[in-house]
Amino acid sequence: MYCTLAPSLPLQEDFVYHWKAITHYYIETSDDKAPVTDTNIPSHLEQMLDILTQEESERESGETGPCMEYLLHHKILETLFTLGKADCPPGMKQQVLSFYTKLLGRIHQPLLPHINVHRPVQKLIRLCGEILAAPTENEEIQFLCIVCAKLKQDPYLVNFFLENKVKRPDPKRPGVEGVREDLASPDTGQPQAEGQAAESPEEPKSAAAQSNNNNYNIVTSLLNLTKSPDGRIVVKACEGLMLLVSLPEPAAAKCLTENTELCELLTDRLSAFYKALPMSMDPLDIETVESVNWGLDVYNMKDDAAIFTGKRALISFLSWLDYCDQLIKEAQKTAAAVLAKAVRERFFVAVMEPQLMQTSEVGILTSTALLNRIIRQVTSEALLQDMVYFLLGEEKGPETLASIAQNPLRHRLIEHCDHLSDEISIMTLRLFEQLIQKPNQHILHSLMLRSLEERNYLENKPQEEREPVENGQPHDFIDLEEDPLFVDDFSPENRLSSPDWLSNSPTHSPYHAKPDGKTEVHKIVNSFLCLVPDEAKSSSHVEGTGYDTYLRDAHRQFRDYCGICQRWDWRGTPKAMEKCDLDSPFFEGHFLKVLFDRMGRILDQPYDVNLHVTSVLSKLSLLPHPHIHEYLLDPYINLGPGCRSLFSVIVRVVGDLMLRIQRIPDFTPKLLLVRKRLLGLEPEGLNIDHMTLLEGVIVLEEFCKELAAIAFVKFHASASTSP
């Protein structure tokens, strides 16, 4: 005997059947204390989702089927929200959150534009994050994240979720009893009057129509969940916020920064993590601790062989700093500016500045090392800009000696480059070396360019008072090749070759030009190579200390700097002399003043300090700006009275050195021994007299070679790019 299977019910009948099964539970059951998992409600909800998914897959893209029409017209989501809010039966809130999440995740057609979707979704959002460590936290964050993802797909929909703070009263009776009465009313199969509008999606209000008086509830709920004790929930909430800040809608960006506590969350947590750090930390630990991406802040103290006091706290701080940085980098432009300004005012000024301005040397060292690490880590344009304004101020006009103390923090940091403590000096020099390599134009303008803008370091004489020029040079010009100080050093191994491009490089100096207007570059290069007298040179006696390494490094670093500076409005040639205010008194600026002062003491300073001073100056020399190049790398410029350049500072040092060499017996052998010790080619032995001086001479020789290589590379690059 054969039996015939009954045909499967049409999808809509099946869908209505499962919904009615749920509604009958509330009509027939008076005992609401049994958990929802003891009922068939979860199974019916899952079946409804399966039917909706199947219906969509069987229809043309974007076409709404009868089951979805039924869900919209009968306000099923509204009803489920009410049941979830009442958590009736116990655990129902979890089921409702899961249903909403799966519905939005599985259905491809846009649902949020429908009033009977986005209105209950908005209401459910308000329930999330209400209770800390709630049993529904996991479902809450999954639901919020799917809403965020949908808004990221179609950012204009966010206007539905900017809710006016003055709420309209809900005409329906709240609670389960009201729902029970509605569920018990006969189903005519017709859409409810209020739900009729759901047949066509609603248009969100335009950004212009949005009131300033809006709640951004999804942001508020996510902010609450960032306080969860469960780290996974916190990361998910942070990811949701990252999606929301990136939405391009201006009204949402305004609401985000003005009507939520996002700024407070970022800055308060950053401040709390910073304050949790030990007052004293080893700068090397701060520098070398591994980078931690904000979402991967996983640290096991037991497995860490390189443990140090405060490491856990430091990783937490750097991890949250990374989150702030990435959030601001992703944020809509106006929101990013507001968030960055909040970090500047509420963290940098309120928390960090007092630490940097303190007088305790241990405190200064620790806070400067932390600032250096922060500078290294910040990559977002807006946060970098506000951090730079915090450190250097926003002034753009030329510095004067009388005005250098107007910005106390900037003044203090620059002064720390010449601190009595060598450790503080070195750490601050490293901070500035890090800073000048950041892609921000104001850094270089503040520290250098505003002082060089008018080229008033040049001698200001009327044309008729200038020395007569013969063969492109003043009559009293001393050719370095004929100068007895340098003549012995023009052997082939001490020269840099001068290929054809050298005579094709742009003019960088108003004087000492050939008739074709081009500077004799090989003389500029060799003038640096020949600055240090022969008896004070030791590199030629040790293998591997030639120019090659400097040339390679200069080429790479100059290319990197050009990449950073290419979008800045830097002229390719110096400002025309007739447009410069040469009568204004020249001041090199506080930063260069301190660097030149330290450079002038290179023979009397510790080796490590000298390395950092020359490193900062070489980085500045690499910058592709014509005034920087002229001032730092052109030995032939005629300086005005009382003005000094990098070359003139080195010349004075060499003059002092030549006098001191004569008073030290066996100077050259001692110098060679010190160089070999520094390179690890000789074991440490007895102390050598004048050790600081000898180490200073070695740094000086290497620095002059480095400057020669930089000049060579820069002229070569400008020749190869000139038409």
UniProtKB/TrEMBL annotation:
Where is coiled-coil annotated? none
Q: Which InterPro entries match?
A: FHIP, FHIP_C, FHIP_KELAA_motif
Which spans does this entry mark as compositional bias, Polar residues? 497-508
- The segment annotated Disordered runs over 171-211, 497-516
Q: Which family does it belong to?
A: Belongs to the FHIP family.
Boundaries of each FHF complex subunit HOOK-interacting protein C-terminal domain copy? 588-680
What name is this protein filed under? Answer: FHF complex subunit HOOK-interacting protein C-terminal domain-containing protein
Q: Name one Pfam family in it.
A: DUF5917
> Where is composition skewed (Basic and acidic residues) in this entry?
171-183
Q: Which domain of life is it from?
A: Eukaryota
